[in-house]
């Protein structure tokens, strides 16, 4: 059982979770939660016991020096943090960790029990996968939910994916079995630039969270980082004609298969986010 610090009663909290590993192409999902922890000044209130779930020969502990100058070992694991964003009328529970190596069902049960103790009302998992998508276009984000009401309200879809899954899929399944409302967002990272980071994909995931929470999230340097990332990939593509031709073919496929009304909806959503952010500032 996860031991939690003393926490005041949270207001209608939403759980937002991301895990490094198979679910986290280019570190896009875990970077989104890292960003939220920084801009919302999140406080860590608990952590899962790593001895139960991690193979330390696969996920090795790190040795380093703490701020006081003492040598210390940092163990791989998963932390639980809480935040009270000033622009929201509800609190946030953040789960940030590494996909475990064993006992996945028990791992999910422990995390969900801790979230239940904190009063979690909705679980949102973030993931990222490699896909045939061009870096020059908006990063596609697919979303699924466990309840029809969420599917309708957020204009999502019920997942039809069949195949291998990671801890995000297992956690989503556990939520469904326990009748916990859950949403999952996945960003599609261009597979030809799979190395982290991918700030454009992180930014796309944060945009979906803004829609769900109906509030703006401080973005800091992320928009400029995303533009710099795209310019850098442009320069790399220009140096190799085969890569440049491949990118052009992906652009043509994307532009011809994407429905005009879908593009219009995406532009409208982005404009609404922009207006909310301006109002917040």
Automatic annotation (TrEMBL):
Pfam families: PAC2
Protein name listed in UniProt: PAC2 family protein
Gene3D superfamilies on file: PAC-like subunit (3.40.50.10900)
Domain of life, source organism: Bacteria
Coiled coil stretches, renumbered: none
């Amino acid at each position: 059982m996860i031991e939690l610090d003393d926490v005041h009663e949270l207001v209608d909290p939403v759980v937002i979770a991301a895990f490094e590993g198979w679910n986290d192409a280019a570190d896009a999902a875990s970077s989104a939660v890292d960003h939220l922890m920084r801009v919302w000044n999140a406080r860590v209130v608990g952590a899962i016991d790593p001895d139960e779930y991690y193979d330390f020969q696969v996920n090795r502990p790190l040795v380093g020096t703490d701020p006081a100058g003492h040598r210390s070992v940092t163990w791989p694991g998963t932390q639980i943090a809480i935040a009270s964003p000033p622009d929201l009328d509800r609190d946030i529970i953040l789960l940030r960790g590494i996909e475990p190596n064993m006992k996945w069902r028990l791992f999910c049960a422990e995390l969900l029990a801790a979230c239940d103790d904190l009063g979690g009302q909705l679980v949102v998992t973030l993931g990222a996968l490699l896909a045939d998508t061009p870096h020059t276009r908006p990063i596609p984000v697919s979303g699924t939910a466990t309840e029809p009401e969420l599917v309708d309200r957020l204009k999502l879809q019920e997942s039809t994916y069949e195949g291998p899954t990671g801890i995000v899929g297992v956690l989503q399944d556990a939520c469904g079995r326990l009748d916990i409302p859950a949403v999952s967002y996945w960003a599609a990272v261009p597979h030809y630039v799979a190395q982290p980071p991918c700030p454009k994909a992180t930014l796309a995931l944060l945009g979906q969270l803004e829609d769900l929470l109906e509030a703006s999230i401080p973005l800091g340097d992320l928009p400029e980082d995303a533009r710099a990332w795209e310019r850098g990939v442009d320069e790399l593509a220009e140096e190799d004609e085969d890569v440049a031709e491949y990118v052009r073919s992906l652009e043509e496929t994307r532009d011809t298969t994407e429905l005009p009304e879908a593009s219009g909806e995406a532009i409208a959503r982005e404009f609404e986010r922009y207006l909310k952010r301006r109002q917040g500032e």
